[in-house]
Amino acid sequence: MKKTLALVLALILIALPVASLGATVRLEAPENNVDMTEQLLAFSERLGEMRALYSRLNVKADEGDVYASARLIVRSSGEIDTKAAIDHAVSPSGRVVLQYASPAEAKAAAERFAADPKTTYAVPDVRSRVEFGARGAAPFTGESFNSWGYGDDQTGMSLLFDKVLAKYGSEEALPEIVVAVCDSGLNANHPFFAGRMVSGYNFVNNNNNTSDAFGHGTFCAGVVIDGVLSNVKVMPLKVVADNGYFYVADVVNAIEYAHQRGCAAMNLSLIEYNPAANALYYEAINAATDAGSVCCVAAGNWSQNAGSFTPQDVERGLVVAAHDVNHNFWEYSNYGPAVDVTGPGVDIYSTTYTGGYSTDSGTSFAAPHAVACCAMIKTYDPELTPDEIMELLKQNAVDDGYTQGGEGRLYVGSLFEGGVPAPIAGDADGNGTVNVADALMTLRVAMGLLDASSINVNAADMDGSGTIAVADALSILRRAMQLA
Known about the structure:
Blueprint: H1 2-15, H2 33-54, E1 71-76, E2 87-90, E3 96-99, H3 103-114, E4 119-124, E5 127-129, H4 157-168, E6 177-183, E7 201-202, H5 216-226, E8 232-238, E9 245-247, H6 248-260, E10 265-268, H7 278-291, E11 294-298, E12 318-323, E13 341-344, E14 348-351, E15 357-360, H8 363-380, H9 386-395, H10 436-446, H11 457-460, H12 470-480
Parallel strand pairs: 6-8, 6-10, 7-8, 10-11, 11-12, 12-13
Antiparallel strand pairs: 1-3, 1-4, 2-3, 5-9, 14-15
Helix pairs in contact: 1-12, 2-6, 4-8, 5-8, 6-7, 10-12
């Protein structure tokens, strides 16, 4: 019988493509993440040199022209023609950045790439601007948190704190969790961040100086640190220049850097109207999710469909709209099916890059509330995957009758009332059922074709040996075929 099952499983492995099973597959990466990060930073430096050298090409270009930089970011399954470009750089993951002599030539090249079926994407390296929502100067009126959004009648964060501390016994025993804020940097000298940050990287100037002279990143980071226990540290990744502008290529590099450095979550309060970049962000966010990072994305502040923007339309990003202290959907928040949850985003009190505090409004500050929630959920159960964390947040969102999309208002106070539910034996993909797809995923992990972080190891380890082996896949297949 075992030989028969093994043969059946082998035939399934050959016959079914990975995509048809909905399996989560991590992109190929070197075993040593330090080496990969060094290669990524070398690529970023090369990209910075290219921008500086050819910046004169787009000085007179129309600010609204998506091809103004005269650069394309390209991925193809075939050979990429670099002859028409005047310069190019290759990322360690295989993306190629091509510099052309003019925006018109870049656009023509994009059209040629689009006509080639081997092209995965050809994205203009667009420059976009980060916008604050509505600044104010309302005084802080809270008690234990700066943001009203963490109160017991809001996200209920202190109730989750109680469960976390009850599990570990003390705050000192908590595992360290690092989250990335991909933004304009951070004022490391602000007393609020003392002992609460780890070193990051400046992708704008390609150095280790992540100081913030724009303010958006410091404000977002302050919201995150406000809502977590001392085990959570923030990593500033500067992708927004001090004038508020950013390039899509830098954001994607930062996303890659964050998951290579093991960040449990990352804040992306960035938005652009660049439909061509959808496939690029899809690749980057899926790779980050596969590697263990939850990508929390601000929905945007234009009272429009969030799905019309990117990376808001990437399914595996957690897209966060905004509501006010009375649980009303914020009138300026983007909305629609792309939204997953709403978070506190109106009159939020947080840190400023000048060293003080102020209030501001926007979905940019709703997303960091979600990052804080992700960090504390990961603290409670480090084995939870990003997909499981996002599902917990969506399933436990409070239904306040929003008709603008999303599962409801962010709330973590009721999480883990009975502890983390035990996984279903054999349910490797965590969808609640045991089927052939679970057996195939487990076999791929056993054969080294799929990373173990892509499955629920506790559910797939049928014999309790602590490792995933072919025998586990056979046991799952027997269960799926109702032979056991």
